[in-house]
Specification:
- By secondary structure, the chain is mostly helical.
- Helices cover 66% and strands 6% of the residues.
- It contains 10 helices and 3 strands; from the N terminus they run H-H-H-H-H-H-H-H-E-E-H-E-H.
- The protein has a 3-stranded antiparallel beta sheet, with no helix packed on it.
- It starts with a helix and ends with a helix.
């Protein structure tokens, strides 16, 4: 039954492999170029807290040089959703075309039938997501050494979270498909649902998955080392106890902005306060987010299996 499931899944699996091959065709040449530029510039010696001005200038030039393509690659966060719904398509189409009824007459139980199909789809999804993660992680590694990996556009692509994202998209598409039995509309709605869920987690939920840290410091002494490569949730002027204070900055867009800015600077507080997630929290956040998406995916897949064995006709 696993072999039959693979034969029915192989077209979509080859399409997913083609997508990964196209991404590799973009990432490998540019990644080799970026890694070479990183080594030639000796940037590994410029990563310390006491880097010289020349080091900081060289590092800034390197980041600016590759920022445009890095921004493009940030959109690859949609690829796990595309792969997930693509690999769900054979199951959804079988329910739309009612060919599942024929399979159920071939001396095989419904449970074994849906279990084999879901096992093949899940294995293919995990393999594709794993390859995508390895590829993007390798490409981004020089930039991660400089800027860290806590920014949303990087966090989504260089850990294990993509595995959960792909399973979630797969589970959502299968759960909708066994009930709705409409192929193309199901896949479109599932992808939109994936995008909405990702947007909600990135913009709102992620910052509540782990208790944040807080820090108060004097701007005179410069930014603390603890904030380097961290994810700053909020930063504001404060007193020495971290309580927010207001500045007399009204009028900066009025008829005399220079005077307003001067007043603001004269009354600037001696402290700033930041609420942040340190770089050391990366894996804790990754595990929580992966478990969240994979857990929801498991529920959706279990629902699809139950519906297929008890309610589908």
């Amino acid at each position: 039954m696993i072999w039959v499931g693979w034969r029915q899944q192989r077209t979509e699996a080859f399409v997913a492999a083609g997508i990964l091959a196209l991404l590799a065709a973009l990432l490998v040449p540019t990644g080799l170029h970026m890694h070479s530029a990183y080594d030639d510039a000796g940037l590994s010696a410029c990563l310390g807290a006491n880097a010289s001005d020349a080091c900081r200038q060289t590092t800034g030039s390197f980041v600016a040089r590759f920022r445009q393509i890095a921004s493009l690659i940030s959109w690859f966060t949609l690829v796990p959703g595309l792969i997930g719904v693509l690999l769900a398509a054979p199951i959804v189409l079988q329910f739309e075309q009612r060919t599942n009824r024929l399979d159920w007459t071939q001396s095989i139980t419904r449970g074994r039938w849906i279990g084999a199909k879901l096992a093949v789809a899940v294995a293919a999804a995990l393999a594709a997501a794993g390859l995508l993660t390895l590829l993007v992680t390798w490409w981004r590694s020089p930039l991660v050494q400089i800027e860290g990996r806590m920014d949303n556009s990087v966090f989504d692509a260089v850990g294990i979270a993509a595995l959960g994202y792909t399973l979630f998209a797969l589970g959502l598409a299968v759960a909708l498909g066994v009930v709705w039995r409409r192929g193309v509309p199901t896949l479109v709605v599932a992808f939109i649902g994936y995008f909405a869920a990702r947007l909600f987690v990135d913009a709102s939920l992620r910052q509540h998955l782990l208790a944040p840290h807080s820090l108060t410091w004097s701007p005179v002494s410069g930014e603390p080392a603890q904030l380097a490569r961290s994810w700053i949730l909020r930063e504001f002027p404060s007193d020495r106890h971290g309580h927010a204070v207001s500045l007399p900055c009204a009028g900066v867009h009025g008829p005399d902005p220079k005077a307003a800015i001067s007043r603001c600077l004269e009354h600037a507080p001696p402290y700033l306060h930041a609420i942040y997630e340190p770089a050391s929290s990366f894996w804790a956040l990754q595990i929580r987010e992966t478990v969240l998406f994979a857990g929801v995916a498991a529920l959706l897949i279990a629902f699809a299996a139950w519906w297929a064995t008890h309610r589908a006709t």
